[in-house]
Amino acid sequence: QVLLVESGGGSVQAGGSLRLSCRYQYSRYCMGWFRQAPGKEREGVAAMGRYGSIYYDDFVEGRYTISRDSAKNTLYLQMNSLKPEDTAMYYCAASNLADSGSCGLGSVFFGNWGQGTQVTVSS
Predict the structure, then answer these.
(1) Average pLDDT of the residues in 4-30
(2) Which of 31-35, 79-83, 101-105 has the lowest average pLDDT?
(3) Secondary structure (H, E, C), the chain
(4) How far is residue 24 from each of residues 70, 86, 92, measured CA to CA in Å?
């Protein structure tokens, strides 16, 4: 088990920006961000493999950037040009293995989840 603690959510107007942070206990091979809006299924937003591979869902459209500060054990998601449809609970996720495995946007790659941080974008 890997402890993951998200922060940085909040309420912004359309066009605004937020930076989400995820403090993790141990680094894992694949780490990422998911989101779930009310009444919708959880969907992958962005993921980063241990050796630099990065994945974004199509809806990101270049507006989000995932990054990691290994010295601080923190994963980030910089979100710009936010839209009302970006409103959701955002979750940090990490794979079970530290040094091997696969990475991508599917839930199958992850076995550890944070509690989530709410992002609300108003028009």
Answers:
(1) 97
(2) 101-105
(3) CCCEEEECCEEEECCCCEEEEEEECCCCCEEEEEEECCCCCCEEEEEEECCCCEEECHHHCCCEEEEEEHHHCEEEEEECCCCHHHCEEEEEEECCCCCCCCCCCCHHHCCEECCCEEEEEEC
(4) 10, 24, 9
Residues in the chain: 123
Q: Count the Cβ atoms, other than its own, within 10 Å of residue 50.
A: 19
Q: Are strands 10-13 and 30-36 parallel, antiparallel or unpaired?
A: unpaired
DSSP state of 72: G
Instruction: Please give the span between the terminal C-alpha atoms of the chain, in angstroms, as a whole number.
Output: 39
Give the type of residue at 118.
Answer: Q
pLDDT at 66: 98
Q: Are 57 and 44 in contact (CB under 8 A)?
A: yes
